[in-house]
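User: Second chain of the day. Same drill as before.
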Amino acid sequence: MRNPYREVLRTPGAPAFVAAGLLARLPISMYGLIYVFLVEQATGSYGAAGAVAAASAVAAALGAPVLSRLVDRHGQARVALPALAVHSAAIAAVLAIGAQPSTTTTHAVLIGAAAALAGASFTSWGSLVRARWAWALRTQPARLHPAFSLESVLDEVTFTVGPPLATVLAVAVSPSVALATALAATVLGGTALVLQRSTQPPVAGASSADPVAPAVAASTTTAGAGPRLSSGWRTRVRGAAGVMEHAGLRALVAAFVATGVVFGSVEVIAVAFTAERGAPAAAGVVLALYSVGSLLAGLVFGAVTWRGSLPRRFRLGAVGMAVLIAPVALSGSIPVLAATLFLSGLAISPTLISGNALVAELVPARQLTEGLAWIGTSLGLGVSVGAAVAGRIIDGPGAQAALLLPVAAAALAALVVVACSRALGVRARSATAGTP
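Assistant: Same format as last time:
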């Protein structure tokens, strides 16, 4: 049988940058869970634990587009290596502060500040890898679907391996050892990735082929100083906005913020739900099954050549996610929670694969890394909100009541996607504009 994954992995240099990228982003699935264990152990509060995880996720969400825009302008190695050094120092600070248990608010704030710095300096490794795929397959656009599908499947591999690994290390050894292990993975993988110069996309920088330029130029056709001033103002505003000037990308961001709430709340709820029932180590298994469902769906989805449009596939994925996660609210035991999360996971990869592929259609090529980073940013923002809100609910009514949160968030994501269908169907003004 034809294997599209094997075919794209024959691309020169692809196996090496795929493997390095996989290792570098493994901690994405570990940091939030480890912070929950570490801070809950130090303070005795799930609310404080959720707040620290949220601080890290918000900082990562805000920092990723900035770092990715710098990558588009200066290259992957020149930006990622310094960021990796800052990230390592921040994690070391978390380890040092967290080594002294305390129930004071100041202690939790200090851990949260260090975790926030670590999040802000965490490079969007998945975006860097996808940008390499886009460059490597620039003359074979049909192969981008299996390539991006492969990356989404590998994202799920990290969320299948990461939570059990983090849980085992945190429970059987200590949260500090788990955090140090996660840091080692991103340092080794990230360094290996950026040192692969042959597959690094060239620096795009400013381009005269910017598709925004014709629209700006058109606004100057009216005689007089006023329109010229308006044109300059619009240029500056658009330059500051970056890829977010595209309505379709804004719709994607809104939908993925709500999707991130699902992910963030499920992570914290799984820890509390299993702990309330006397089996805290089961949290990693529950979260792993959640990712296994997504992984299996992603493998099938990426191997099929779909005829429907990307916006339609994305819309079906978002609606499917809302429908499949609804039974989670009825979970009364750990096995039932694991089963319902596995079922809901079947809609995750198809939604994420279609969303990432839509970015390549909605934004110019010269802004691709930044555009892809906004997917991670919106998910990160949602994860932070979901973790914080879920923690507060758990400290009050409990984990059972908190299960309503991911169900409501998934429904909101589907509503946004359906309402913004027109914006999601508008492609970049030029398929080749801004190509490096």
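DSSP finds 20 helices and no strands in the chain.

User: Great, on to the next one.
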